[in-house]
Specification:
Aspartate Aminotransferase, domain 2, 13 helices, single chain, 43% helix, alpha/beta, three-stranded antiparallel beta sheet, 2 domains
Length: 395
């Protein structure tokens, strides 16, 4: 098997599993308990808070553990909306956000909030001047993702953060895809709220975090007990949190080398597909993109049919976001960057990890070439296109 769907989820690292195991058996105490068994669990949560915070330049007390990136996005946006409703009800986001952000904003719209959905350019970039133009006296939040989960484009986060700080507007970024993949410094980038998830960095599923900058006061998302300093009630998932901490520590250790290696493999894969498969289009910014992200659209090909062919060859890939798999609608991200419905339906996302090799990607290129050619031979649109090509050549 060749696994190239790391944007959907990653394989848990052995050291992460080892960090989690004691909390399934020996150290099973409730982290809120006063006795020694609970204290050991509580200490593990504190250590994980330090490890996760260190990866983004945050203090431990600024990290709040959640059930994942979706909860963190919901908490950030809904809590800001509720906390600052008396100041204004206008929020700025983009058209290419993850559904966890877009659907939360749509939920708020039904409750009287106004949302500005910014356009992006053909590479998926949000322009800072568009953010500035959208700001109003009643704007309370800007929420722009750090890097897009489908096309990999990295947004101008530091510039948007600087703008938001100057205009006294809170800035949230969904960094689920960027966390542990590229350097992040919440202080330098002037980020107020940041969402992340463990299972994108070789950690466990079901645990994530929301970074809340010290001094930002927003309402709790879950009410009940005093966990997470009374801002997120519920018994802590100690094993998951310990795993998240170990995954963050590992990500920090390997980040520079991982980034360099994946970029080299990524660029070679892009070069080969562009040169060896005709009538294809690279989606996303050519250089401002996640190290392991490759997204192409192939004319005269259905993406789902291509995925099936790759799966038959033992290659795991996707046609877009894992959260929208099974949908018959074309990707909202690809439509937002200007693709036609037909071309958007012909997309393929290949997302690498440090475990992938050049030999694997050579196999992938050959398999994609054969599958695309086979599927095109079955397409009447392709047949008509080739006939027209022949006629033009003979004129």
């Amino acid at each position: 098997m060749i696994y190239l769907d790391n944007a959907a989820t990653t394989q848990m690292a052995p050291e992460v599993l080892q960090a989690m195991l004691p909390f399934f058996s020996d150290v099973y105490g409730n982290a809120s308990a006063v006795y020694g068994l609970g204290a050991r669990a509580r200490q593990a949560v504190f250590e994980a808070r330090k490890q996760v915070g260190a990866l983004i330049g945050a203090a431990p007390e600024e990290i709040y553990f959640t059930s994942g990136g979706t909860e963190a996005d919901n908490w950030a946006i809904k809590a800001v909306a509720e906390t600052f409703a008396d100041r204004g009800k206008h929020i700025i986001t983009s058209k290419i956000e993850h559904p966890a952000v877009l659907q939360t904003c749509e939920w708020l719209e039904r409750r009287g909030y106004e949302i500005t959905y910014l356009d992006v350019d053909k590479d998926g970039l949000v322009h800072v001047e568009d953010v500035e133009s959208a700001l109003r006296s009643d704007t309370i939040l800007i929420s722009i993702m750090f890097a897009n989960n489908e096309i990999g484009t990295i947004e101008p986060i530091a510039e948007i953060g600087s703008l938001a700080r100057r205009r006294h507007v809170l800035f949230h970024t969904d960094a689920v895809q960027a966390f542990g993949q590229v350097p992040i410094d919440v202080e330098d980038m002037q980020i107020d709220l940041l969402s992340a998830s463990a299972h994108k960095v070789n950690g466990p599923k079901g645990v994530g975090c929301l970074y809340i900058r010290s001094g930002v006061k927003i309402h709790p998302f879950l009410h009940g007990g005093p966990q997470e300093r009374s801002r997120r009630a519920g018994t802590e998932n100690v094993a998951g949190i310990a795993g998240f901490g170990a995954a963050a520590r590992r990500a920090a250790r390997i980040l520079a080398e991982k980034q360099k290696r994946e970029m080299s493999l990524r660029d070679d894969l892009i070069r080969r597909l562009e040169s060896e498969v005709p009538w294809c289009r690279l989606n996303g910014h050519r250089s401002r993109r996640l190290p392991g992200n490759v997204n192409f659209s192939f004319s005269f090909v259905e993406g789902e049919a291509l995925l099936i062919r790759l799966d038959m060859a033992g290659i795991c890939a996707s046609s877009g976001s894992a959260c929208t798999s099974g949908s018959l609608d074309p990707s909202h991200v690809l439509l937002a960057i200007g693709l036609s419905h037909e071309l958007a339906h012909g997309s393929l996302r290949l997302t690498l990890s440090e475990a992938n090799t050049k030999a694997e990607l050579d196999i992938v290129v050959e398999t994609v070439k054969k599958a695309v050619e086979l599927l095109r031979q079955m397409s009447p649109l392709y047949e008509d296109f080739m006939k027209n090509q022949s006629l033009e050549e003979n004129i």
